[in-house]
Sequence to fold (95 residues):
Amino acid sequence: MAEKSDVIFVGNKPPMSYVLAIITAFSESNTKEITLKARGQAITTAVDVAEIARSRFIKDLKVTCIAIGTAEMPPREGENRSRMVSTIEITLSKA
Fold:
């Protein structure tokens, strides 16, 4: 990647707090690109956040890239083997 993009990690908060983070990032800095990263059950929230921001708040926002994958997580306490977790990266750019 030629230019550095801002990254927002999506977790357990309500979707509107991440939408607010996107709006703030685009208005405060002169960045043209933001990447939402999520894994596991937060993937659905990340998709909702991208769609809410794109359709309701920033009309010229475009989804430029979606990357999916799998990450290996270390075992939890009491478990003896690692587990695989789905991941997604959604890149949003402002025209």
